[in-house]
Design goal:
4 helices, about 45% helix, about 0% strand, mainly alpha, about 130 residues
């Protein structure tokens, strides 16, 4: 079993290592800007990426939250935390207290803190990394 897995890992490594060599060989080592190469009239200049959408990973701040579904609630505590962090990041007026208001303040046995305190902690981490 281990032997086949090791062989698969070695083959995948070789395949990824060979990809750049194949790409260079198909270009014959010549640059597209070299003399004798013609550019298509339909070539458009590269556009800058759209920066209006944030690419922040709110889940990193919520990593302490549980990912198991609790019956009677909408989504998992983790997904609720991610939504709260998104609200917090998009509005300067939103405070961690209001963003985490939907979380329970009751202690869950076997976890550190309450869901509310974990959300507040995640909000502090998010605010610390963005400011």
């Amino acid at each position: 079993m281990k032997l086949t897995r090791n062989i698969a890992v070695v083959m995948a490594t070789l395949a990824f290592g060979a990809a750049p060599a194949v790409a260079i060989a198909s270009n014959h080592g010549k640059s597209a800007n070299a003399p004798g190469h013609t550019k298509s009239a339909n070539t458009k200049p590269a556009t800058t990426p759209d920066t209006s959408k944030s690419t922040t990973a709110y889940g990193r701040a919520c990593s302490a939250m549980s990912r198991t579904h609790v019956s009677g609630q909408k989504g998992t505590p983790f997904s609720q935390c991610v939504i709260a962090m998104e609200k917090l990041a998009k509005s300067a007026k939103t405070t961690p207290k209001t963003a985490c208001a939907s979380f329970s303040k009751k202690h869950v046995k076997g976890t550190k803190g309450t869901p509310y305190s974990q959300c507040i902690s995640a909000a502090a981490k998010l605010r610390h990394t963005t400011h």
